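Instructor's aside before we start: the two examples that follow are unrelated to each other. I chose them only because their records fit on one page, so don't look for a connection. First example below.
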Amino acid sequence: MRRVPRRSVALVVLLALVALPAVVGPASAASPNSKHDRILAYWTKERIKSAKPRDFVRQPGGNFVPARKPAGPPSGSGNTTGSQWPDGKGTMYRVVGRVLFTMDGGNWICSGSAATDGRGDISVVMTAAHCAYDQANKAFATNWMFFPEFDTTPTYACQDSVHGCWTADRLVVHSGFANEPGFTSTATLYDWAFAVTSVGGKTGTQLDALGSFPIAFTSYASGTGVRATGYPAGGKYAPGYELIYCSGGVAFDAWNLNRTYRLSCDMTGGSSGGPWYTSFDASGNSGTLSSLNSYTYSGGNSMYGPKFNAYTQATWTAAVSTDTGNAVVP
């Protein structure tokens, strides 16, 4: 990431590094040796369990360095800056999960959520673009897998989980993100991605059979109440198998020219891509996907997310209306 204009604070990409080697994954409904099966086999219990939070600060020169602790921007007003969501409560508990993928020679974790797509033959996971596309190498992530309700599976194994795992048939991002040389201030405005999955899990069903949330393509006024969720895996949230939430009124990132949202929240690496809801019901059964965990400032105590808009909608439309391959939407 680059520094926000006229300030000396760097953006922290909320990613966490995972380690390597493989064997067998859970059984699936796909044909033997399919892409789905190969991805499941890649993510062994050992690989998933070995995921370790590793946050990075993007410097103006473009290099990632270990996070430092300069003073961050002021926090937004909020009611909950980081609490564990009650086990088993609501649809949200089932459909928010851990995202795993390979990018630029490494394995990584993020968060994501099932989104209502209106089709019966696919399901869609919303996450951050930096959890799906490698700008430096202009390449999509591989071995992309979604592990819903990760909270109930400290064994870190798809086959031992409640629902199993789903793998991406295709990933879709916007060119506003993909065309940037790295995680820049401009990239933060387009930091969303949609992963399209087919049948999976332990019973060979669609992901949205577990439930899903609708998505809105509009921005919201300062003070609008939101709830952010995800699976942070760094710092006090290690090892990262608890579903965490923050809630309060949104503000804006003044150091990013008010072009992105700000919410008081101390979630750490691994929470990137976790959904933000408006009109959220405390039962966890209703709400609208309205942004996601994108970045923080080193030393700060707020989470930042993109404003969904017509570009988000174009990315979404490409994901749900086409059936061939990864795509960068113009």
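Example two begins here.
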Amino acid sequence: MKNFCRLLTGLLLLFPLIGTGIPSLQPVADDLAAARKAVLYDGEYLVYEVSWTFLKLGTIRLRAHRNYTAEAYIDSYEGLHLVDLHSFNHTRMDSSFYSLGSHAIDKKDTMWAGLDYISDPARGLVRMEEIRQSDIHSPPYLRVTRDSIKVPTMRFLDGLCIGYFPRAYIRTRDTLNVPTILYGKLGTTTFCFSGDRTTEQIDAVDKPVRVVKVPGTTSVEGIYGMTGAFTGWFSDDSAAVPIKGKLKVLIGNVTVELIQWKRDAWNPPTAE
């Protein structure tokens, strides 16, 4: 579940260029710039519920800001024997939703432990630093350089910005392979944009929601064995809000569904 938030996290869910690694923006640069501007809404707040079969596992809370930063809080519900997870993720993005650096920590007993990812464009590296914190927002009391990742280009995605990057491309007809860093490993996330419009039913809305389907895959393996194929459904409007997502982990198929939102004058678009 934690890695989905980072992958969706593209959502996701929340997602003729195959093999290039980086999408070419020249033919539709103006359209994509407008799409990115429509996606980014200062203070956008989205809450998702994660479920496995009929069992509700927990929530993912996402908040975006005008300065191209975003954070996610991932919390399992109390009393579950299957999972006990509390995680915080923060990312800094450029105007195209590529990562400029990120921070991810998980609660382990009485402390918080995780990684900071620090970009070093001059050397073509992403430096990883292990950190320990006494609580979720306190400064690290321990910081140790762990390793560096050589990246083919500094235009890469971290786990959280994967949830924002595909929102600008759902009107395109491209397959994009994008370098992705998850859990200290470099791989590739593939988004298959075909403009496939459909509807999805979610509990928070009475009518079916108009969505655009975006399947994809990731080669990076995360916690609970999350890897391989995933599918995201994004609202069929300029906001392209992730509505629903599905992915596979060790325990089986996991579903992530929008249950609450706060975005001025926006509601999920519904079928007539």
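Helices lie at 2-7, 29-39.
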